[in-house]
Specification:
The complex is a heterodimer of chains A (111) and B (113).
Chain A (H helix, E strand, L loop, with lengths): L3 E4 L2 E5 L4 E7 L4 E9 L5 E8 L4 E4 L2 E6 L4 E6 L8 E9 L4 E3 L3 E6 L1
Parallel strand pairs in A: 2-11
Antiparallel strand pairs in A: 1-3, 3-8, 4-5, 4-9, 6-7, 7-8, 9-10, 9-11
Chain B lengths: L4 E3 L2 E4 L5 E6 L6 E8 L3 E9 L2 E4 L8 E7 L2 E6 L8 E8 L7 E2 L3 E5 L1
Parallel strand pairs in B: 2-11
Antiparallel strand pairs in B: 1-3, 3-8, 4-5, 4-9, 5-6, 7-8, 9-10, 9-11
Classes of the chains: A mainly beta (111), B mainly beta (113).
Chain lengths: 111, 113
């Protein structure tokens, strides 16, 4: 069964710093990997979707990479802002149309 | 598009009562998922439908839980009878097709007293 791990579980950085969130998965037979953001009391908002044939995707200050063979993805956030404070989750979609989620990284950006 | 729409947003009920949660997926999306989120267990898949047909319900906790999708634009998750341990946030999500981007609703926060 696919297992998805996110490290660290929590991260606190000063405003303006660049940061990297990590996601690893055990089974490389995936369709895609998706990064989400979740604010307290809210649903999950899709940030980036990387297909298994792609190496990276970019949206604004966010850049996500995928190394399928090693079972790793990173989410890079440039010039962090207090508004980036949230929990970030990654999910892999397998060939059976199921999604496996990590437990998330709780990010706090200190003004 | 209005996104995935869930109702109610909050539900407080007493143990033993029936609870019905509702979901309207994004128009045209072929697959719909029900998840439950708690602090202890994170996100858990309860059931998912493809073209209105239940494909995998192995995550449904027990017979007290049931889900239906009578048409492409509506699904329900029912708990009868409800118990305090069912208290959680229940999310509905949908995707256009296999390999597509997953979109979530805002969730239904259930509290069973």
């Amino acid at each position: 069964k696919q297992e998805v791990t996110q490290i660290p579980a929590a991260l606190s950085v000063p405003e303006g710093e660049n940061l990297v969130l990590n996601c690893s998965f055990t089974d490389s037979a995936i369709y895609n990997l998706q990064w989400f953001r979740q604010d307290p009391g809210k649903g999950l908002t899709s940030l980036l979707l990387i297909q298994s044939s792609q190496r990276e995707q970019t949206s604004g200050r966010l850049n996500a990479s995928l190394d399928k063979s090693s079972g790793r993805s990173t989410l890079y956030i440039a010039a962090s802002q207090p508004g980036d404070s949230a929990t970030y989750l990654c999910a892999v979609q397998n060939t059976g149309n199921q999604f496996y989620f990590g437990t998330g990284t709780s990010l706090t950006v200190i003004p | 598009d209005a996104g995935v729409i869930q109702s109610p947003r909050h539900e407080v009920t007493e143990m033993g009562q029936e609870v019905t949660l509702r979901c309207k997926p994004i128009s045209g999306h072929n697959s719909l998922f029900w998840y439950r989120q708690t602090m202890m267990r994170g996100l858990e898949l309860l059931i998912y439908f493809n073209n209105n047909v239940p494909i995998d319900d192995s995550g449904m906790p027990e017979d007290r839980f049931s889900a239906k999708m009578p048409n492409a634009s509506f699904s329900t998750l029912k708990i009868q009878p409800s118990e305090p341990r069912d208290s959680a946030v229940y999310f509905c999500a949908s995707i256009l097709q296999l390999g597509g981007e997953l979109f979530f609703g805002e969730g239904s926060r259930l509290t069973v007293l």
